[in-house]
Amino acid sequence: MKIAPTIAAARAFVRRPGRPVVLVPTMGALHHGHAALIHRARTLAGRNGRVIVSIFVNPTQFGPKEDFSAYPRPFRADAALCRKAGADLIFRPDASEMYASDASVFIDETRLSGDLCGASRPGHFRGVCTVVAKLFLITQPDIAVFGEKDWQQLAIIRRMVRDLDFPVKIVGHPTVREADGLATSSRNAYLTPEERAAAPGFYAALRAATEKATPAAVVRAAERGIARIPDARLDYVRLVDSATLEPVRRLDRATTLAAAIFLGRARLIDNVQIPPRA
Questions:
Q1: Burial class (CB within 10 angstroms; exposed 0-12, middle 13-18, buried 19+) of 8
Q2: pTM, full prediction
């Protein structure tokens, strides 16, 4: 496995023979959820292809009160995980490599990003779209793998690829969970032991809510379930069309129950997919 700290080094690697190239974009602080994405990428790449994992804590997707400076950066452990999971290259630029000091061009998605996490984190998806577009241009992947835990991000990336004609296939990988149901996340490390014990109630509340018969009842049940989690503060609960992220009035299409909560220092997101009902 090689490590490329510069755009030039990453491009030199990509120019070598071996297709497909499969990209797994990350911000580091990797865990077994990321390992699952890299394993999926390895399978998609096959024997002749190559897997690139980008590790870049992207400053443009953090708000002024968010945890950019405190975000963990355990690169030695991250590299060991990438190597074991089957990566061929880690692209590890710093901010000055990715953004000129007077950078003035960014990518905005204007239809899917206004609600959910976009409402709670203004500018977040502008930063996400910009950095993912740059990663696509630098690494020229045939396929890119994203986790489904951040369903809104996945939908926005798919829309960006469609609207800007990136020649990249986007593959969503199912959310990886701990044994008690909590979605894996780098931010789970912020939870105290008491908060970690309570956190699985988040997914349990969403799962239970999907049994309700109408969209309004689903949302109310999710809110009630989250309210029973000790010390949890609700950010949002929404039931939306899985592709367009628009609110739904009926359960006759594929829908996503998406939510975010604050638990201590951690902001947790999760979602449950609901198949169409007759």
A1: exposed
A2: 0.95
Is residue 178 a part of any domain in this protein? no
31 is catalytic: no
Give the number of domains in the chain. Answer: 2
Pairwise CA distance, residues 33 & 176, whole Å? 5
Same-domain status, 114 and 34 = yes
Q: Which residue has the tokens 């949890």?
A: 232
Using left for φ > 0, alpha for ψ between -120 and 50, and beta otherwise, residue 66 falls in beta
CB 91 within 8 A of CB 64: no
Which residue out of 31, 32, 34, 173 is catalytically annotated? 34
What are 44-79's pLDDT values in tens digits? 999 999 999 999 999 999 987 787 888 889 999 999
Same domain, 167 and 91: yes
Q: Which residues span the domain enclosing 194? A: 186-271
What is the structure's pLDDT at 75?
95
What gap in Å lies between CA 236 and CA 262, rounded to an integer? 10
Sheet holding 255-263, edge to edge: 232-241, 255-263, 266-274
Look up residue 238 and give its two tokens.
């929404």
Q: Is the peptide bond before 20 cis (omega within 30 degrees of 0)?
A: yes
Does the residue 206 lie in any domain?
Answer: yes
Residues of the chain with pLDDT under 50: none
Query: DSSP secondary structure string, 113-171?
Result: SSSTHHHHSTTHHHHHHHHHHHHHHHH--SEEEEESSSHHHHHHHHHHHHHHT---EEE
Same domain, 113 and 194: no
Among residues 145, 173, 201, the one where a domain terminates is 173
User: How far is the C-alpha of 25 from the C-alpha of 35, rounded, in Å?
Assistant: 12
For residues 100 and 11, membership in a common domain is answered with yes
